[in-house]
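Q: Please design a sequence for this.
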C-alpha cells in the first residue's frame, strides 16, 4: 500500500475511560475518521500520522495497523483468511513474531486454538512465498500480529508500536503494582493541571505521576527515547520518521524545576522515584521528600494534588486504610484550602471515610481493576474548623 492509495486504517488501544482524551490527541497529529469505541479509537492516516501517534500519544497503549477484515464462522475460516495475506510483503522471514487473539462475543470455544491456526497460516504462507518460516517469540517478538474476533467479523492487525507505549523507556525500578504511565498521563489531563501550576503527589510510589508531569512540562514527547515496531516493517519510511523525531527533539526544553513535588511515607518509594527521575534525566524538574501524607506541608497556596493511594489490593490491610483515610481528610481540610485534589482508588468508600464530598467521580480502569478518580475541591474557608 503506497501513500497515494487509500489511507491506512488504524486502531489505538488505551485504558478504558480515556477514549475521549486519546481521540483529542489523535486529532493533534492530523488523524482522520476518528471513531471512539470501548477501550480504543479507530482512525485513518498515512504513515506519518501513524509514526506521530506512536511518538506523541501519552494515552495510547498500542497503535495497530489493520491489514484485513472479513467474516468467519470457525477456525478454518481464520486459517484461510490469514493464509490469503501476503505476510512476506510486510515483514522479513528473519524477524520472529507472535499472534495475539482477543475475542468479544466470539463464538469459538478456544481462543488458543484460533491463535494456533492463525500462526500456522502465517508460517505456511511464508514457506510457500520464500521457502522458510519465521520463528515464534512470545516474549519480545520483532513483529506482533493482533486478531480481533467479534461475533461474525475478524480483523487482523500488525502492531506498529512494539513494546506497549506506556513503556516510555525511562522507568527502571518500581514498587509493587505501579500505576501505568498512560493512565497517569490521563489523570493529569483530567485534573486540569497546567504546566507552571504547582503539582503535588504525596503518595508518589515509584514516581509515575512525577515522571509524566515532568515530561509534559518540558515538552518531551513520550516516545522520544525508544524504538517502535513499525521500524521492523518492510514499508518503514525512515526519512519521514527521522524528520518527526528531529522535530520532537528540537522542542524539548532544558531541565529546570517545574513546581512538581513528590513525597511518600515509604523511604524506599522515595529512593525509587529519585532513581527513576535520575535515569530519565528529569530529577532537577522535581522536588522529592520523605514525609507522611498527613504531615505534608502544601508547597503553595493553591495547586493540584494527585494521588493513587495504596488500596487494599496492594497493601492487603483494609483496617490500616480505614484509619488512615479520616486523618488524610483532616489534613486536607486543615492545610489544603484552595487546592484541587484527585484520588484514584478502587475503594469506593474512600471519600466517605475521609468525610469529604467529591465533585466528580470518573470511572477508570487500572489494568483489570475498576477504579474511580475522585475530584475533591478544597474550598478556602468552608472546610476549616
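A: Design:
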Amino acid at each position: 500500500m503506497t501513500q497515494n492509495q487509500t489511507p491506512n486504517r488504524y486502531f489505538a488501544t488505551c485504558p478504558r475511560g480515556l477514549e475521549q482524551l486519546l481521540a483529542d490527541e489523535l486529532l493533534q497529529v492530523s488523524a482522520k475518521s476518528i471513531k471512539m469505541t470501548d477501550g480504543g479509537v479507530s482512525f485513518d492516516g498515512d504513515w506519518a500520522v501513524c509514526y506521530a501517534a506512536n511518538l506523541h500519544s501519552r494515552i495510547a497503549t498500542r497503535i495497530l495497523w489493520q491489514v484485513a477484515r472479513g467474516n468467519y464462522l470457525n477456525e478454518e475460516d481464520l486459517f484461510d483468511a490469514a493464509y490469503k495475506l501476503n505476510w512476506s510483503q510486510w515483514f522479513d522471514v528473519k524477524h520472529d513474531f507472535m499472534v495475539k487473539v482477543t475475542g468479544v462475543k466470539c463464538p469459538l470455544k478456544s481462543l488458543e486454538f484460533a491463535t494456533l491456526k492463525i500462526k500456522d497460516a502465517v508460517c505456511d504462507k511464508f514457506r510457500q512465498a520464500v521457502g522458510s518460516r519465521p520463528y515464534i517469540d512470545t516474549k519480545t517478538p520483532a513483529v506482533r500480529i493482533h486478531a480481533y474476533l467479534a461475533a461474525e467479523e475478524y480483523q487482523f492487525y500488525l502492531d506498529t508500536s512494539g513494546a506497549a507505549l506506556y513503556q516510555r523507556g525511562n522507568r527502571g525500578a518500581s514498587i509493587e503494582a505501579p500505576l501505568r504511565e498512560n493512565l497517569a498521563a490521563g489523570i493529569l489531563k483530567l485534573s486540569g493541571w497546567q504546566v507552571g501550576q504547582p503539582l503535588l503527589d504525596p503518595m508518589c510510589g515509584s514516581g509515575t505521576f512525577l515522571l509524566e508531569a515532568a515530561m509534559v512540562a518540558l515538552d518531551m514527547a513520550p516516545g522520544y527515547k525508544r524504538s517502535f515496531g513499525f521500524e521492523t516493517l518492510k514499508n518503514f519510511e525512515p526519512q519521514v520518521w527521522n524528520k518527526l523525531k528531529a522535530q520532537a527533539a528540537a522542542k524539548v526544553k532544558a531541565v529546570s524545576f517545574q513546581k512538581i513535588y513528590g513525597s511518600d511515607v515509604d523511604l524506599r518509594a522515595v529512593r525509587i522515584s529519585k532513581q527513576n527521575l535520575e535515569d530519565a534525566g528529569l530529577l532537577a524538574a522535581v522536588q522529592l521528600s520523605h514525609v507522611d501524607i498527613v504531615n505534608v506541608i502544601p508547597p503553595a497556596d493553591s495547586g493540584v494534588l494527585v494521588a493513587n493511594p495504596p488500596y487494599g489490593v496492594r497493601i492487603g490491610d483494609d483496617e490500616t486504610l480505614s484509619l488512615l483515610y479520616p486523618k488524610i481528610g483532616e489534613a486536607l481540610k486543615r492545610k489544603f484550602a484552595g487546592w484541587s485534589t484527585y484520588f484514584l482508588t478502587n475503594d469506593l468508600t474512600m471519600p466517605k471515610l475521609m468525610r469529604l464530598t467529591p465533585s466528580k467521580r470518573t470511572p477508570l480502569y487500572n489494568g483489570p481493576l475498576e477504579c474511580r478518580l475522585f475530584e475533591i475541591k478544597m474550598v478556602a474557608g468552608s472546610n476549616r474548623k
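Q: Thanks. Anything notable?
A: The two ends are 68 Å apart (CA to CA). The mean pLDDT is 93.
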